[in-house]
Specification:
The protein folds into two domains: about 80 residues, no CATH class; about 70 residues, no CATH class. It contains nine helices and no strands. About 75% of the residues lie in helices and about 0% in strands. It starts with a helix and ends with a helix. It is mainly α.
């Protein structure tokens, strides 16, 4: 438990907040991943800056897989309802424009315990295309919905 307490204390350090805000604004690789962990530890004063970075990554400011992953997690877990709806719109847009990007976005938004992933799963449920040789996108969604239902009942 002491480790969690120290990370929460570290997350509140003013110098960390100032530096993190600066590196987020400069889109330094890995900065959003660090910001996500700091926000999870309770530092919410950087959420607006992190959201700006997350959306800029989704709009092409970074092609790094780890930055895109952190962007998806950040929006899913810390975005406002409007920001999350905007994120869902981005996923829907790539559904037709770029299947590789579509796959990257939805995969980084599900397999969490955040209820918001259900909205992403709704997009997949309606997608009858083949995801791979043996599963449709809708099959992936049904499997994850079953996992979520099972974890709620325990």
């Amino acid at each position: 438990m002491g480790n969690r307490d120290s990370s929460q204390e570290f997350a509140q350090a003013p110098s960390l907040v100032t530096e993190l805000r600066s590196i987020l604004q400069s889109h330094r690789p890995g900065s959003l991943y660090v910001a996500y962990d700091v926000m999870k530890a309770g530092q919410h004063s950087i959420v607006a800056t992190a959201m700006d970075a997350a959306f800029s990554y989704l709009n092409g400011a970074s092609k790094r897989r780890s930055d895109i992953q952190a962007a998806c997690w950040t929006i899913r877990d810390f975005g406002t309802e409007a920001q999350f709806k905007e994120f869902l719109g981005v996923i829907r847009r790539y559904h037709y424009q770029d299947q590789k990007k579509y796959d990257e976005l939805w995969r980084n938004a599900i397999w969490s315990d955040n209820e918001r992933e259900r909205a992403v799963l709704d997009i997949l449920l309606a997608d009858q295309r083949m995801y791979d040789s043996s599963f449709r996108y809708s099959d992936v969604a049904r499997g994850e919905l079953a996992r979520l239902s099972a974890s709620k009942s325990h």
